[in-house]
Specification:
Elements: H1 3-16, H2 42-55, H3 71-77, H4 94-97, H5 103-110, E1 118-119, H6 121-128, E2 135-138, E3 143-146, E4 150-157, E5 167-169, E6 172-173, E7 176-179, E8 184-191, E9 198-203, H7 213-216, E10 225-229, E11 237-245, E12 250-255, E13 267-272
Parallel strand pairs: 3-7, 4-8, 7-13
Antiparallel strand pairs: 1-11, 2-3, 4-5, 5-6, 8-11, 9-10, 9-12, 12-13
Helix pairs in contact: 1-2, 1-5
Length: about 270
């Protein structure tokens, strides 16, 4: 493997370590749980397997990457105060990305064949334009309002036929969504982007997100985060579901947690009233 590609894999592994719990089940909360840092955890086992599969003998061959296979290296990569400084900055080192400019492109390719439910392109297109039950859609104001105690909606990430790096639901692009306090919310996210990973998290802050939400964002409610989904394949588009209770009134944001995407426009208002 060329060194540039290996560096990209390692840089991406650092970014996605915080989202490895998605592989075990959709709808994780906030950042990677503390248990994920334990050497006996499934996340650590998967991390070692993925790194070994892509890096091969180079990982222990004196290239400087071997230490990343160990517990200390893994723990540093899941974020927090021990994380490398670039994780908390606004740009990735060039040697980590190789020729890629969007971390989501590397992430999407690595997890394209990951487990989980799939939907066909036709199903995704239909679901992205479907008006959710119990919703009032104001197309002029680009707003969807739910007044009931149960909310179910489908969100497409970067679908064809619309602006890139945006969400679509009920045929609207990045609509403002309002639900009542105490509502049980279920959001199915479908990655319709052919070559880039995307996810969705309800952010605890209504202000502009950081460049790297996967390392800095706190979900507003337990279960209100699905950090990323891989690229579509011939088996279909990856889909996952966030399920949470909108327990506290306030103004929040839904956004894509993949580095840089929210700042490119992949975000919208989420209000609990």
């Amino acid at each position: 493997m060329k060194s540039a590609r290996l560096a990209a894999v390692i840089g991406t592994a650092a970014l996605t370590a915080a989202g490895l719990a998605v592989l075990a089940g959709c709808g994780t909360s906030t950042k990677a749980p503390a248990a994920a840092a334990k050497p006996s955890s499934p996340a650590y086992s998967y991390y070692r397997s993925m790194m070994g599969r892509y890096a091969g003998p180079m990982m222990g061959g004196g290239t400087g990457y071997g230490g990343m296979m160990g517990v200390a290296g893994y723990r540093s990569m899941i974020g927090g105060t021990a994380a490398p400084a670039w994780m908390r900055g606004h740009a990735l080192p060039g040697h980590m990305m190789g020729t890629a400019h969007d971390p989501g492109q590397v992430m999407g390719a690595l997890w394209a064949n990951g487990p989980g439910p799939r939907v066909s392109p036709g199903q995704a297109a239909r679901l992205g334009n479907l008006i959710p039950a119990g919703a009032t859609v104001d197309r002029a104001a680009n707003r969807i309002t739910f007044t009931g105690s149960s909310v179910r909606l489908v969100v497409l990430a970067s679908p064809a036929g619309g602006p890139d790096e945006t969400f679509r639901t009920a045929g609207l692009v990045n609509p403002a969504i309002t639900v009542r306090a105490g509502a049980r919310v279920s959001i199915e996210i479908i990655n319709a982007d052919p070559d880039t990973a995307h996810g969705l998290v309800i952010n605890a802050s209504h202000t502009a997100s950081s460049w790297m939400p996967m390392m800095t964002t706190r979900a507003a409610f337990p279960g209100a985060a699905l950090w990323f989904l891989g690229n579509p394949t011939s088996a279909g588009m990856h889909a996952g579901t966030l399920t949470f209770t909108a327990s506290h009134p306030g103004t929040y944001r839904y956004l894509c947690a993949v580095p840089g995407h929210a700042r490119k426009g992949m975000a919208g208002a989420f209000t609990v009233s």
